[in-house]
Design a protein that fits this description.
Elements lengths: L4 H8 L22 H4 L25 E12 L2 E11 L9 E6 L4 E5 L1 E7 L22 E11 L15 E7 L14 E7 L11 E2 L4 E5 L4 E3 L3 E2 L6 E7 L2 E3 L2 E2 L37 E2 L6 E3 L7 E13 L5 E16 L8 E2 L4 E5 L4 E5 L1 E2 L17 E5 L7 E4 L9 E5 L11 E9 L7 E11 L4 E7 L4 E8 L6 E10 L11 E3 L6 E2 L3 E6 L3 E12 L5 E9 L4 E3 L19 E3 L9 E3 L12 E3 L4
Parallel strand pairs: 10-19, 21-28
Antiparallel strand pairs: 1-2, 2-6, 3-4, 3-7, 5-6, 7-8, 8-19, 9-12, 11-17, 13-18, 14-15, 16-17, 18-19, 20-23, 22-26, 24-27, 25-26, 27-28, 29-30, 30-34, 31-33, 31-35, 32-34, 35-36, 37-38, 39-40
Length: 616
């Protein structure tokens, strides 16, 4: 949860591996070898899971394709750990019985794992047969997901010995060996980990990872991948950075080949003299590689059509402490395998933007997410297939939000997102969710995953203070709440009991302006008549511009009124007496009078004030 690049750069000081690319140039470049002809869309998110991805592999022991570690808080210092291992079905059967829990000071314990389930996740379109691979055997091409669980209780032995860890608790797992098809360098043992800072967050849950970590890329077509990381339990902020693949703790695996490194694990499109670290994701096709540190989006155009590589993404959780400073409370080291293939004739679906929104806490935000899929037209005399249908779904990444398909029977589905972030949910870092568009092409579905960000801005809040003075005078003050963000601006408006503006100054007015409105933080109102009034106060907080409006009722008791009206055109002859009889209302006995004279002579000279008591 709206994060700026400056925020990420500040965070990155604690993580030297954070990938913070500079702002990109919004230019388009020409594909010198007909790539533009292949592409008709600028930024596409294409994710293929291909059942034939291992057609040229031999059965071997190198079966590890990736793994995910997540944990969920059960109670203070007690967690449920889930580890998902992804196996190449052409490799040997997978088996593991335990993993290691280690404090950063070196102390460790071994914890047993319980097998929860095994399932094949080789995706095929709905008309293709699937699920034919015998469970956990060396068989034909395919991918299996093996899910294991364990309970970590640092309140009891043997893990209570680690409860006083002054650093982070690290969950480690590994096995021989990585997939032998990898041709970019990082071969050998497989190792990955997750971290929990039980001192700073004794009951924290890791982000859920909703995208499977084996992705198939289509050569020479723009690729978009998102991890789908979502922290719906604690609403912590998440950042992303590249990280090296490991064979063991502090045992980094290296890459081989031109431009390959853990920060550049793919062969990407670079026209002309352009080279890493340059990138421009707005080009057609995208140039270079970018990992968005805020959303986890990976965008590039793969150019090596037989590439099998490893990319590791470090997903870091951040939470503010009592001083408002972001603290690193957890890490997930996500080890991903990517395979680039020459794909069949099909245009992938699109998830349309914009992809970033702002909303004030307490206000509702709604917008539509549309999809598109351009029909692929082959060269004559081949006939074009019917246009693909596209389904639209989301990963439920923002608790309390809704996502409704407005046209479930349409060829191109549209989703409507609505959310009213509660008061107190404002954040410097954005909330995010992902939308997946999947077409019905066979034998391979094309899938697009796109992240959407929502920055929740703080609301301007203040307490209104009022003080009753003498003779119908009331003092008002606006007191912004502690931690107020932005530059406050104030406005007070004087209304009657029906919330109509009081224009008549003889009834009431602000002291500083003499009218019904004031733009001061502090001011006073002089009432001339008793009654029920509404004091409207507006406070804003530029540049967030999330104002609050308050309506406070003020009951002014009846005020003493004296009417000295003598009627129209009253003339007095010289030497005659004129009797003044004031008409009083709202009188509380005993009443005292004081008279004063003021005026000018026929010659224009001012008369001195003369004051007399009531008997004169």
């Amino acid at each position: 949860m709206y994060q700026t690049i400056n925020d990420i750069q500040m965070i990155g000081k604690e993580d030297k591996n954070a990938y913070l690319a500079s702002s990109f140039e919004k230019k388009e470049h020409t594909n010198n070898y007909h790539m533009i002809k292949l592409l008709k869309k600028s930024v596409l998110a294409l994710l293929f899971f291909i059942p034939l991805l291992f057609a040229q592999q031999e059965a071997k022991a190198s079966h590890m394709m990736g793994a995910d570690i997540t944990y969920q808080c059960i109670d203070t210092l007690k967690f449920k750990v889930t580890i998902k291992y992804f196996r190449d079905c052409r490799g040997i059967p997978f088996s593991i019985s335990n993993f290691t829990v280690r404090c950063s000071n070196g102390s460790s314990r071994t914890v047993s794992l319980t097998l929860d389930n095994i399932k094949e996740i080789t995706p095929v379109c709905s008309t293709q047969p699937g699920g034919r691979i015998p469970t956990n055997t060396s068989a034909s091409e395919g991918i299996e997901q093996h899910t294991y669980t364990a309970i970590l209780d640092f309140n009891t032995l043997p893990l209570s010995a680690l409860a006083g860890c002054t650093g982070k608790i690290r969950i480690e797992t590994g096995q021989c060996c990585r997939n032998g098809a990898i041709n970019t360098g990082p071969l050998g043992n497989f190792f990955t980990y997750a971290e929990i800072d039980i001192a700073k967050a004794p009951c924290n849950s890791s982000p859920a990872l909703t995208s499977e970590p084996i992705a198939i890329l289509c050569c020479n077509q723009p690729f978009f991948f998102n991890n789908g990381a979502s922290d719906t339990s604690d609403l912590d902020s998440i950042s992303y950075s590249w990280s090296p693949p490991l064979a063991g703790w502090n045992q980094q695996l290296s890459y081989s080949g031109t431009n390959y490194s853990y920060q550049h694990p793919f062969s990407a499109y670079y026209p002309g003299s352009l080279a890493p670290p340059y990138y421009n994701v707005n080009a057609n096709p995208p140039i270079g590689i970018r990992l968005d540190p805020e959303t986890g989006d990976i965008i590039f155009t793969p150019t090596r059509c037989d590439e099998v590589t490893v990319a590791v993404i470090k997903v870091t959780e951040w939470r503010k402490d009592s001083t408002g400073t972001y603290q690193n409370i957890g890490v997930t080291h996500r080890d991903l395998q990517f395979i680039t293939k020459t794909c069949p004739n099909n245009n992938p679906p699109e998830v349309d933007g914009p992809y970033a929104y702002n909303v004030c806490e307490g206000s509702q935000l709604c917008f539509n997410v549309t999809t598109d899929d351009e029909q692929y037209v082959p060269p004559p005399p081949a006939q074009a297939s019917p246009p693909d249908t596209v389904t639209n779904s989301w990963n439920r990444g923002i608790p309390g939000a809704t996502y409704t398909i407005t046209n479930p029977t349409a060829r191109l589905q549209t989703g409507r997102f609505c959310w009213t972030p509660p008061l107190g949910s404002a954040s410097d870092l954005p909330y995010s969710f992902t939308v997946t568009a999947r077409d019905n092409a066979c034998p391979l579905n094309a899938v697009t995953v796109r992240a959407f960000r929502v920055k929740v801005k703080p609301r301007a809040n203040a307490e209104r203070l009022v003080d009753t003075l003498d003779c119908g005078l009331y003092a008002f003050e606006s007191d912004p709440e502690d931690g107020f963000k932005g530059t406050p601006s104030y406005q007070w408006t004087l209304l009657d009991s029906n919330r109509n503006i009081i224009f008549d100054k003889r009834i009431a007015k602000f002291t500083t302006s003499g009218t019904f409105i004031s733009r001061k933080q502090k001011d006073s109102i002089q009432f001339r008549q008793g009654g029920t009034y509404i004091i409207q106060h507006d406070i804003n907080n530029a540049p967030s511009n999330c104002p609050s409006t308050y309506f406070d009722t003020l009951v002014v008791p009846p005020l003493l009124e004296a009417n000295l009206s003598l009627g129209p055109d009253t003339f007095v002859c010289a030497g005659t007496d004129l009797i003044f009889r004031p008409y009083l209302s709202n009188v509380t006995p005993t009443v005292e009078y004081q008279w004063s004279t003021m005026g000018v002579t026929d010659d224009g000279d001012f008369l001195n004030n003369v004051t007399a008591n009531a008997t004169d």
